[in-house]
Specification:
This protein has 228 residues and is α/β, with parallel strands linked by helices. Helices cover 32% and strands 26% of the residues. Strands 6-7-8-3-9-10 form a six-stranded mixed beta sheet, with helices on both faces. Strands 2-1-4-5 form a four-stranded antiparallel beta sheet, covered by helices on one side. The chain starts with a strand and ends in a 9-residue tail after the last strand. The structure holds adenosine-5'-diphosphate (2 copies).
Amino acid sequence: MIEMQNVYKKYPNGIIATNDLNIQIKQGEFVYVVGPSGAGKSTFIKMMYREEKATQGNIMVNGINLSKLKNNRIPYFRRQIGVVFQDFKLLPTLTVFENVAFALEVIEEQPKQIKQRVMEVLNLVGLKHKARMLPTELSGGEQQRVSIARSIVNTPKVVIADEPTGNLDPETSWDIMNILEEINTRGTTVVMATHNREIVNTIRHRVIAIEGGRIVRDEQRGDYGYES
Ligand code: ADP
Ligand code: ADP
């Protein structure tokens, strides 16, 4: 599903963000990515959805070789992947419904199909009744649930989340985790960078730890492993 071989990333300013990454993630896995700030977690994740390009090495996602992916094919590739951000990145002038529908309108789905699918995913995240609201009318947890609905509306094989609970209180964070768990149970691969020790140590999954741009630990049902 996701494979990296000898992946090296140097930013234009000379910083080497990741060095010799080698991983394999299978369809249906749930993977936490942990490590200190500046370790390279975001870079690792951004390379998976081609937000950043590897300087050297090979990345395969969904059978697509990202080092050979032409720029004009990136939008097509991204549609096969759901992405969830710490700061939600919802469009503020669009309603909840419109934020989620956006990805389907781009691919010119039929309005009837769009409505059905959008309401289905809003129902899954428990927000069907708020479809007409604007993001600013929602709590942080609700905004994150909208962003998760948006990420899965295209039925991607993988959802990539970069600190999805980073801006949320502990209780709301558990709600978000339960939704990601449900998505994973239905067969979607989930890759999630997180600093949330409680969650990693309670809902056990594979843990990949990155330090100084290198993978220092990769354990099935691992623990968080840091004190704070
Ligand atoms: P983490 O997500 O673990 O905090 P990042 O992947 O964001 O780590 O950063 C890894 C290193 O790369 C850090 O030293 C960071 O300052 C640097 N870095 C991240 N993004 C950029 C960028 N766009 N340009 C230059 N350096 C960057
Ligand atoms: P939380 O305690 O999780 O941060 P809030 O107190 O922000 O939640 O919101 C509680 C409820 O009130 C939510 O269901 C939210 O949708 C609704 N709400 C919050 N702000 C507004 C607003 N400006 N207009 C309409 N509904 C709102």
